Automatic annotation (TrEMBL):
GO terms for biological process: 'de novo' IMP biosynthetic process; purine nucleobase biosynthetic process. Its EC number is 6.3.4.13. It comes from the Bacteria. Coiled coil: none annotated. PROSITE patterns: ATP_GRASP, GARS. Residues 105-311 form the ATP-grasp domain. The keyword Nucleotide-binding applies. This is Phosphoribosylamine--glycine ligase. The lineage of its organism: Bacteria, Pseudomonadati, Campylobacterota, Epsilonproteobacteria, Nautiliales. It comes from Nitratiruptor tergarcus DSM 16512. The gene is purD.
Amino acid sequence: MKVMVVGSGGREYAIGLALKKDKNVEEIFFAPGNGATLELGENVEISDFEELAKFAGQRGIDLTVVGPEAPLVEGIVDIFRKYGLKIFGPTQKAALLEGSKIYMKNFLKKYNIPTARYIETSIMEEAAAFIDELTPPIVVKADGLCAGKGVIIAQSKEEAKEAAASMLSGEAFGPAGERVIVEEYLDGYELSIFAVCDGKNYKILPAAQDHKRLLDGDKGPNTGGMGAYAPTPLIDEELYKKIEERIIAPTIEGMAQEGVPYEGVLFAGLMIVGGEPYVLEYNVRFGDPECEVLMPLLKTPASELFYKAATKQLDSLDIEFYDKYAVGVVMASENYPYGKSKPSEIIIDEIVHKELAERAHICFAGVSLIEGKLYATGGRVLVCVGIGDSIKEARDYAYMLTGQVHFAGKKFRTDIAYQALQVNES
């Protein structure tokens, strides 16, 4: 099988790594890929979706897997299907679950799926009136895609009003903020739940937890994610059942009723409050860095999972996972998430520790190949992933690997999976 992965980050590298180990896969393409995906397959510098679909047809690519949200929201799946190509991901209409937070919240309301109380508006006076009804902290969200940065958790009513005004004026996020959602703050802990769907059937993957804040102790600004681990002990069978019955199943059924069957990955960002799950947001693709810790746990061949989802055959698949834990630690560049950093050569020490070599690996993200050398050129540069029989063991391997990686200005959190370790200790 020939497979193409659309995207250039750590998520796409992790998918490529899983496909590389897959006996069904003979050739992998990345569009556009990064400086390190060249080790796994061929990079394709075609950004136009029509041209990319023609390339896939000419090269006999059997399946395309879409990593990021932007191509999905822009309709890449619809274009590939027009050419009779198999592609894993939701259609443009289905991708509105992430492309428009207002569409998503109204969908949740219509199908009685638990979520925070909210208002959606383009009028500042309406936003301000609702803010006055709430007790801080207060959540303000831009409607459109903002690369994971369109959510403000305001600590006062004044800050919430300033955030709403900044979005509605176009100053904060341009057209993405022309309409906003103001919602009550849910106080609990977050979980990332992923369901692979084929429009009717779905398979729920082990629950993961992401660490959004830049600094230890969940301090500092929100980022695209500074680390993740899976599976998490913060969930039990009872909670899995509530999530499936109240959230995943009604979403898949609701989308079908809307005439927009959901295919691809449904990523539910949940808040668990007093043992009850609430939807914070939907994303229409794997999370990053959650994908980097889920892929190594997948025992079922990745190509089989993606292909059966893309061809409406998920009901014939028994999905299996290794009885292990994975922890991923993001190593970011000096100025992340505030601005760009100078390119810096990446030096990786030779790994002489046999177990570390077997139990840990790197997923490369913001890297470029310059004159045969790998440079850190992005915000989140790479993810060090450790695999273990316990979360602590997996975390130890991940952090041992961070000690082998060097580039100027590197930074990372030192407390990834701290909540899980606290649960295990108690």
